[in-house]
User: What shape does this take?
Amino acid sequence: MEKIVSLSKRRGFVFQSSEIYGGLNGCWDYGPLGVELLRNIKEQWWQAMTYRENVEGLDAAILMHPRVWEASGHVENFTDPMVDCKECKARFRADQIEDAMCGSPAYKGRKAHKCQAEGKFTEARQFNLMFKTFVGPVEDAGAVVYLRPETAQGIFVNFLNVQTASRQKIPFGIAQVGKAFRNEINTKNFLFRTREFEQMEMQFFVKPGTDVEWFTYWKEERITWFRNLGMRADRLQFHQHEPDKLAHYAKDAYDIEYAFPFGWGEIEGIHNRTDFDLSRHEQYSTKTMKYFDEQTKEKFTPYIIETSAGASRSFMAFLVDAYNEEEAPTADGKMDVRVVMKFHPKLAPVKAAVFPLVNRDGMPEVARGIEAALRPSLRVFYDDSGAVGRRYRRQDEVGTPFCITVDSQTLQDQSVTVRHRDSMQQERVGADHLLGFLKERL
Ligand code: GAP
Assistant: This one.
């Protein structure tokens, strides 16, 4: 993890939020390469989920009517048990003390449960994870609103709006990508548990009785999505929630877990939410949430199958999964270790780098011409500094799938060298069909 966090900062994937002020715990900024990778992940998700006949997109507001969170159960149930250390004032989640460390510099390396055994901790009390703010100028109880802790509720309350506007028939889904906020007691493991993050959620509305079948369908679809984007199959697993650990709304739930360096961690949840959400919104809003089936003339409250992925957590899993250290020959024939991010080409932040072999003989002009021809279609990077071998390594480290070099032969026959990131093999390609060549392989 340390290597990945350091590479992320050095190469511009992720920076600590407000770093010059000492940072803000649980918040991170995506740098130039990070924002490309994150956008690519979200775009792949959007295509996979909404380029279908039976799934529509939505972008709901982050701030919602406060009654939404009463209906959803978040005001009552979205809590974690919290304890404080009376001595060092550190704060812990009561259910995670086993893995936590004492917060006092005087006891560096000491496990928190030892402090607990010595009676230093307060009684556990419930802490609601929703961030509160106020609408309008007066900060009184009537003006309280919450930053949404999940994007799902924006979908539920718009169920009939979307269904009517798009003339969808059940079964159909609504997909949304957006920010969510949780005032986590302890943030940890880089992007894994943060206070501000992004979710990619899809709610699929089905007829009761068909829910188990659709649950199985979406479970498989979602794990296949990660695999198709190159995530190693042996680092992915399902974890079924025990019946007594199910969320208050769920009939069945599986997590897709990834094998992070610190252990298995959830990157996506697939939940059978039954008719809980729509029934509760019907009860709290007193507006119908029922669906009328024109064919059978039946009226019913649909069941919901939810696929809820963290964009930020998936980002971190893709980063970890891509990271490789490999023995590789240098230009002078010696062996050394190259760091190579083997992103799937669809996710790679930069698709191709263009180099002139040397900065003379007209090579920079030709290379700039190639760069200009590719740039409207692909994210490309131009680099003319240092030896070509070092330029390759710099691109390997950020996962650029192709490096294109203009050399003396280019000046003779307009062909360039294309070097493949993973195999390090090189081949010659005519500059005039370079774009088609790259697009086919991307
Ligand atoms: N609508 C259901 C829901 O929000 P969840 O299991 O609480 O379910 C879904 O969250 C996904 O959101 C998780 O699998 C994870 O990827 C991401 N997520 C949740 N809390 C997070 C946090 N504090 N930081 C980063 N990602 C988080």
Summary: The chain has 14 helices and 23 strands. The radius of gyration is 26 Å.
